[in-house]
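Handout, page 2. Input:
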Amino acid sequence: MSKIQISNLIKNRFRKFYPVVVDVETAGFNPITDALLEIAVITLKMNKNGWLKKEKKLHFHIKPFHGSKINKESILFNKIDPFNPLRKAVSEKKAFKKIFSLVNLGIKNSGCNKGIIVAHNATFDHNFIMAASNRIQIKKNPFHPFATFDTATLSGLAVGQTVLSKACRSMGLIFDNNKAHSALYDTYKTANLFCKIINYWKKLGGWPKKKINKFNKI
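Output:
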């Protein structure tokens, strides 16, 4: 395998972190007390030329855990009825078993060491995922315990925007505000945004690492 082919492996792009795009919808802001209502994840891959692409996705509506709080303001905002049977919601344990299985398999197949959450304002999503993981006590949580890739920060650097819709549009991506605050839609758009920024940096000559020397002159 050539040096270029080696640099195009996803394990070498992010220091053996396996990036997984995530979005959650919740019934509040407190990850310990407030219900997790929806989650979507999209895994990523790099093609043979080193361009980052979307790969697999999972999406679940979640049943509020026993004793959780449902804040009226939050469900009015995201327009989720937590107890609507048409949601076909599943337990946190069932959803996270499938998500963690997918991510652990991706880590193994890509030669990475750990998954890392990619999200817009990632601390929020990370906190809810870690809290849910602790509640259901599933072994082998694949995600890094504190590190994340935050597309709000990255898009602030790239195009001077931190709101997801504005960042997407500034990067030439379509964003429909009427579909926002659906975990699947927001995850899909966040994945597109992350890939666009990473690939744009490559196009500028910032990856592979040997090309970064040109920026030392700035």
